From TrEMBL:
Name the UniProt record assigns to this protein: Beta-lactamase hydrolase-like protein phosphatase-like domain-containing protein
A GO MF label: hydrolase activity
Boundaries of every Beta-lactamase hydrolase-like protein phosphatase-like domain copy: 9-107
Taxonomic superkingdom: Bacteria
Annotated organism of origin: Ostreibacterium oceani
Pfam families tied to this protein: BLH_phosphatase (PF04273)
Length: 138
């Protein structure tokens, strides 16, 4: 069962997607999906990004594969570029949703898009405690 959580007006996050989630993603109005889970992390062929890509393609939803094994400044800046250049709204996913939520939060901090407390609250409302991943100083 799909467990999408909204982070802001244009960003959603979810744990591992399955091909059968594609219709619900389309019905939610998502235009782009970003996969942050490296294919080798799970050993289930039907959960590889290409299986998700094929299912989403039936609904004209783009999948962008940005596997993240370690959070880093380049990963955040690459994610920012992806978000700036893709159709919205966006659903990002990884195994649990935490990595994708932290990338979103770090991008928001980097852009000074909103107060850090607002970012922590938005992530918390989606079910993700991310305060420990954010820089101490604004």
């Amino acid at each position: 069962m799909l467990k999408m959580k909204q982070l802001d007006s244009q960003q959603w996050v979810a744990p591992q997607l399955r091909p059968e989630d594609a219709q619900a993603i389309a019905e939610a109005g998502v235009k782009t999906v970003v996969c942050h889970r490296p294919d080798g992390e799970l050993h289930e062929p039907h959960l590889m990004h290409e299986s998700i890509l094929d299912a989403l393609a039936e609904f004209n939803i783009e999948l962008i594969y940005q596997p993240i094994e370690q959070l880093s400044y380049p990963a955040v800046t690459d994610y920012k570029a992806i978000i700036e250049g893709c159709a919205k709204p966006v659903l990002s996913y990884c195994t649990t949703g935490t990595r994708s939520t932290v990338l979103w939060a770090l991008m928001e901090v980097m852009e000074n898009a909103r107060d850090k407390t607002e970012i922590i609250v938005a992530a918390g409302q989606a079910g993700y405690g991310i305060a420990q991943y954010l820089p101490e100083h604004d």
